[in-house]
């Protein structure tokens, strides 16, 4: 169990944490069951990859534009589906994510199953420079450290902004919609507009998580973005706590420490079996958690009980 | 149907409203108007179409036919939030407080035109937002004080009793700065003392703020002693609309409530 290994786990946990911040604003603060978060992530990552590789853009210019594209996708998905009842919205978003995945898998422009490679030169140059600086602190040997720092710095920024938003009158309207959207409408709030904004922010966070995922794996291929990503995201959310942004970080770190830590168990079974056993154990842990602490680690019990 | 004086200066005018749900004609050509500044009761047996009428007036369902005018302008088919912003707000038969939000947050939410509800303003005008929050909080606390809920302001609304929720819902509706309030059974589940206080307060508001109230109520004592006009619905139509004592003596009303006397 080297430091390098755990820094790598930390990178993945950080990517999930940013991804789940988006789920949290939808599920925990607006009451929207968004099951298409992986779709927004792949649109963000692929848009960035294609702008750099196919269009020759700088990575730093491609990122904000890719966020804008993911946000646009969020608005296009949300506009028709957010008028539907909550459960239909959930189905519409999962359908959307699958459409996106199959499109990237089969469309020539996205590289199909070969994926996209070669968009990260500028990042690698920056990482090398960072690593050089870190060497002064004696940390030069940990190649994943620059990405780790970038991911968690970015998470911290997003967390700060989301907390400010949650405490604002805007965040108050979101919570009211979560509690009872008809009552919010009866008090003069344009519910659809607030839901669209919530979904757009989730899509932006998914795109940012997608950038870091792309930089971590160094090439993009469609199966990275299958619905499992969203579902593990929900496991992080449930673990950390409903309607808690801080819980997202805790949930992500815990889940991925468990996932990766269980590799080091030496059991008399095959590697494949042990891989599956990890998911069984994590599933059991989640069931236990929902029985013993349904609000999650940092969720609020009082609020949980008041919800029907 | 409309008596002299009743339709003079109407704030709400409903004309030939029709709403079907499948084979059921819940509202079947209802027409009446509500005078500005009045306290008008809407009564009728169960299934008369009172709540559907409220839903139609406040935009929660749209009519198949007919028009609704509020303060001179047509509001037929507008979405609920637009109607509320025009100054016509409602409460619900079964209270709908935001359970996992504090009483104070329930109140502050309802205030109109808050700069902090726009992401753009939050980014560029934080001072305007802070000023507005202070003003909104003061207004909310003042209203809570009048409803005897001030000491509950930090509690979750979901922990309030049924009667307190009714009070909170009315207070919250008043936060929208309405000109007219529709109350769907405001007294149901509220104890008599609290209910009376609620009505006293409503009477106050009519005098001081020139507000208009239309309320659905089943307690005939309350209707006859408090309302200055009574609209009676049965089977989706308005069968009488007049002063309480006139309505009480109307044979059509008695028939609607008690059935026809055997010949």
Plain-language structure description:
The complex is a heterodimer of chains A (about 300) and B (about 260). With about 300 residues, chain A is mostly helical. Chain A contains 13 helices and two strands. In chain A, strands 1-2 form a two-stranded antiparallel sheet. In chain A, helix 1 packs antiparallel against helix 9 and helix 1 packs across helix 11. The longest helix of chain A is centred in the middle third of the chain and has 27 residues. The N and C termini of chain A lie far apart (about 45 Å). Chain B is of the alpha/beta class and about 260 residues long. Chain B contains ten helices and ten strands. Chain B has a six-stranded mixed beta sheet with strand order 6-7-8-3-9-10, sandwiched between helices. In chain B, strand 4 and strand 5 form a beta hairpin. In chain B, helix 3 runs parallel beside helix 6. The two termini of chain B are about 25 Å apart. The N terminus of chain B is likely disordered. The chains are: A mainly alpha (about 300), B alpha/beta (about 260).
């Amino acid at each position: 169990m080297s430091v390098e290994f755990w820094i790598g786990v930390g990178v993945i946990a950080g990517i999930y944490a940013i991804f789940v911040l988006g789920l949290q604003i939808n599920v925990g603060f607006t009451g929207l069951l968004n099951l298409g978060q992986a779709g927004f992530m792949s649109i963000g990552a692929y848009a960035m990859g294609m702008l750099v590789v196919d269009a020759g853009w700088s990575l730093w210019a491609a990122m904000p534009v890719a966020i804008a594209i993911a946000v646009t996708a969020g608005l296009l998905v949300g506009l028709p589906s957010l008028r539907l009842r909550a459960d239909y919205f959930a189905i519409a978003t999962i359908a959307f994510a699958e459409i996106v995945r199959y499109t990237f898998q089969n469309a020539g422009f996205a590289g199909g199953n070969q994926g996209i490679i070669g968009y990260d030169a500028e990042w690698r140059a920056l990482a090398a420079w960072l690593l050089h600086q870190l060497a002064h602190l004696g940390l030069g040997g940990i190649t994943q450290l620059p990405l780790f720092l970038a991911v968690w710095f970015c998470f911290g920024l997003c967390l700060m902004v989301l907390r400010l938003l949650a405490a604002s009158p805007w965040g108050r309207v979101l919570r009211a919609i979560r509690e009872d959207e008809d009552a919010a409408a009866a008090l003069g709030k344009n519910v659809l507009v607030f839901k669209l904004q919530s979904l757009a922010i989730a899509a932006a966070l998914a795109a940012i998580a997608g950038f870091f995922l792309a930089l971590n794996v160094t090439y993009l291929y469609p199966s990275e973005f299958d619905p499992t990503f969203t579902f593990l995201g929900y496991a992080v959310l449930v673990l950390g706590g409903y309607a808690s942004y801080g819980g997202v970080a805790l949930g992500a770190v815990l889940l991925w420490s468990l996932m990766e830590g269980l590799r080091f168990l030496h059991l008399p079974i095959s590697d494949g079996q042990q891989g599956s056993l990890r998911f069984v154990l994590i599933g059991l842990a989640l069931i236990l958690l929902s029985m013993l602490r349904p609000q999650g680690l940092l969720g609020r019990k009082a609020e949980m009980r008041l919800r029907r | 149907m409309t008596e002299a004086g009743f339709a003079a200066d109407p704030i709400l005018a409903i004309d030939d409203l029709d709403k079907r749900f499948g084979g059921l004609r819940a509202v079947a050509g209802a027409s009446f108007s509500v005078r500005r500044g009045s306290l008008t009761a809407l009564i009728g047996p169960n299934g008369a179409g009172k709540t559907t009428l409220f839903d139609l007036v406040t935009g929660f369902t749209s009519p198949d036919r007919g028009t609704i005018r509020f303060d001179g302008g047509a509001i037929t088919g507008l979405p609920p939030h637009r109607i509320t912003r025009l100054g016509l707000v409602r409460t619900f038969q079964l209270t709908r407080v935001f359970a996992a939000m504090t009483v104070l947050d329930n109140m502050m939410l309802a205030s109109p035109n808050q700069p902090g509800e726009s992401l753009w303003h939050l980014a560029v005008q934080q001072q305007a937002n802070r000023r507005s929050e202070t003003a909104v909080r003061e207004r909310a606390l003042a209203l809570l004080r009048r409803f005897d809920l001030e000491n509950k302001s930090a509690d979750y609304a979901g922990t309030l009793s049924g009667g307190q929720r009714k009070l909170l819902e009315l207070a919250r509706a008043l936060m929208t700065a309405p000109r007219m309030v529709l109350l769907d059974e405001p007294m149901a589940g509220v104890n008599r003392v609290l209910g009376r206080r609620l009505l006293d307060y409503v009477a106050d508001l009519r005098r001081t703020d020139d507000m208009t109230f239309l309320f659905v109520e089943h307690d005939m004592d309350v209707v006859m002693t408090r309302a200055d006009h009574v609209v009676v619905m049965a089977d989706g139509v308005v069968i009488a609309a007049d002063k309480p004592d006139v309505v009480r003596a109307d044979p059509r009303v008695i028939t609607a409530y008690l059935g026809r006397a055997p010949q």
